[in-house]
Amino acid sequence: MNKQASQTISTKLSQFVHGFNLNNVPLDVQQYALQLILDGTGIAYASTQYDFSKKGLEALRLFKEPGEHIVLGTGEKMPYRDAALANGLLIHGLDFDDTHVAGVVHMTSAVWPCVLAVAEKCNSTGEEMLAAYIAGMEVGARLGMVAKGAFHQVGHHPTGIAGAFACSLVAAMLMKLPVEQMTMAQGIALSMASGNFEFLEDGAWTKRYHPGWAAVSGIMAATFAKAGYIGPSLPYEGRFGLYNSHLIGLEPGCDYDLATAGLNSVWEVMNVGVKPYPSCHFTHACIDATLHLTKEHQLTVDQIESITALVPEEVVKTVCEPLENKQAPTCAYEAQFSVPYLVAVALVRHDFTLADLEPTPLADPVVAALAKKVIYQVDPNSGFPTYYSGEVHITLKDGRVLKHREHKNRGCFDRPLSADDIAKKFFLNCQLAISKNKATEIQQAILNLASFSSVTELTSHL
Questions:
Q1: Cα end-to-end distance, the chain, whole Å
Q2: What distance lies between CA 433 and its chain's CA centroid?
Q3: What is the pTM of this model?
Q4: Which helix (H) or strand (E) holds 419?
Q5: Phi, psi for 405 (deg, rounded to 5)
Q6: What distance in Å separates the CA atoms of residue 371 and residue 366, rounded to the nearest whole number?
């Protein structure tokens, strides 16, 4: 490998992953990583009760291929790659999974399914699994950070894209590939990384499988590299590399140094936020601002003249436009990406939970009428992408205007949910599918992952 090649992003990331040692990871980082795995796994169990997951699993069963790899919450097993796809769909399907704020990526939903599948294939230890998970999270977060939120502006889903590269390294790490093959795996992943935002137009289900597809892509890329297949040497910074090809016109705003900055010293896992609400993370600050004003002033619907939500300019296309559609979502997935609807729900019901995405609540005429009174403005004081801030101005019929701003998202890196809060969320999600005793068993198994000598000690509980 020549000197120039040794300085590429893909080589630096390969060296980081190849030399990764769990003993060098601070204990608090390891413990938080286990909390994130717990959170994602609980969401997977909840997702099994929804139609999108039943149809997705039905599609995979049509291949009629026997398998040995677990599908979370179902009691069934599927082939290697199908299980990774299924588990990614289950973790991400409710849009309740964690977010790395600056990278704008949901890495657990891609990395954890990849870890599970490859670990089963390779009979990895619990330490190897936890190390691969943390390494994958670190890589995926940084690859998202390079773009500074620009993927959303051109209709790409960064989780599916960054996740494929991260998973190529996760799979390669668990397969114990050398640095050179890890680098090739990233080059091969360039032709696989994908994720499109057209689902926003009609509430389509496609976004839900993007992380699982990233896991599959990573597995495929690492396997091809293991066999000696040759991939491009500049998958990130090349003339037709990731950012040049996906961010035409916006690529000059990328900061390539962020892809490798702080490796082994700054732990981006700690900057991953756990969601308190089952909706796009861009909406959470407006939900909390509405809840604050509603509680403080004991607001009722009949007092409201209009509501204005202030949001970062970068999130408008995702959660505010086209406004007419966002004011009248026709299905749960549209509702989860609608600031007007979620603000209305928060004011009317004083909360927002999975129950509010059921057909009857979605059809509530009171919420529907209020959502039509909610408009948006671009927030001139936005801290995006460091913070997904939000502000709500509620104009009352008596002329008063009530205002509240949420500078930082609850659940994110500097307003984290506690371990108890994450556990409570886990049990609430699991109760949709399994008993509390079984959920407790799973919780204890995940939190003790690093002590297991074989992946089977975990999967026997899952």
A1: 43
A2: 22
A3: 0.96
A4: helix 419-430
A5: -120, 135
A6: 9
